[in-house]
């Protein structure tokens, strides 16, 4: 008797299954796929007879990991800030640039000027760079519209990406990202009149998988974020938060009190916040690209997170201001070199823990019942993925079992 399906053979699997030893490595392995899901994984010599008649594809003894998950991006946005980057390196101050319409405001202006189609077209080259490095799931945030129409358009663009590329998309509503110019000095008014009504409208249209915010002196207070989270709770949506990036306002603790999926950035997180995250099962999302770009010196408290057993995810934060970066492999290298993550923590950060940060239990490791989203690498050992800088060893990407 033969099962309908397909078997990938002659591979080394980094299953990342807990308790299976470093990386959950299985040598001389095979993976059987049925209807887009992993139906069996293990040593090829033990392949069940039911799969023996299936079509087989040899992967030439390459390493197979779960498809990578970029769990924090702003990949949909209009324009870029290269001119501002150049002006800053020629001596212009951040204030001068802000007065000249630079900074986040310039991205809001460019995003408002773009149609949904234009937002998709601008995002696709960035998505392509991610796919080329084995990404199979990407989270995409709104937050550069800051008015109802543009916030909805950003999320519509995010939802449209899988029509153009073989990628799975998860969305986050980030209406509480910045106060737009027309509400300058009136953040409360923006939350009540724009952010919350827009969240409701986006949810009605099925555009929202989770609700995010930016809790910071230059953005929104814990009280304002709590108002947005209360609305998320009424709508039955999970929350997450940009917390403790530039200072400590207790954002991670607030997020944990709402059972947040994740608290992200967290350079200024303290022991109190770590304990609250551990208690709530909130994932720590580490974003070394923003740390690097902003020349930050305060390190996220990795030792405290490890000691408390808080899972750490790793992402690009791909955005035009603080992280103009599409390389998740580079984020892995930065996580190791800048923050002393181990290469195994870095790989878990872009697979199993990335999935957990998105509230997804159907992907992120190689186990029966998981989506057959795989990355095939021309490397002998998984540590090579985080080790090299600016080198892409991807051999193939398999999504839902299809090469
Ligand atoms: N934190 C960041 O680093 C980015 N957004 C956020 O909440 C910055 C966004 C930008 O500068 O465009
Ligand atoms: Fe971000």
Q: How would you explain this protein's 3D organization?
A:
The structure is a single chain. With 403 residues, the protein is an alpha/beta fold. The model has no long low-confidence stretch (mean pLDDT 96). The protein is built from 15 helices and 14 strands. A hairpin with a 2-residue loop joins strand 2 (25-34) and strand 3. The longest helix is centred in the middle third of the chain and has 18 residues, at 187-204. The strands form two sheets. It has an eight-stranded parallel β-sheet with strand order 5-6-7-8-9-10-11-12. It has a six-stranded mixed β-sheet with strand order 3-2-1-4-13-14, with no helix packed on it. The two termini are 26 Å apart. It binds 3-[(4S)-2,5-dioxoimidazolidin-4-yl]propanoic acid and fe (iii) ion (FE). Fe (iii) ion binds next to loops.
Main features:
about 400 residues; binds 3-[(4S)-2,5-dioxoimidazolidin-4-yl]propanoic acid
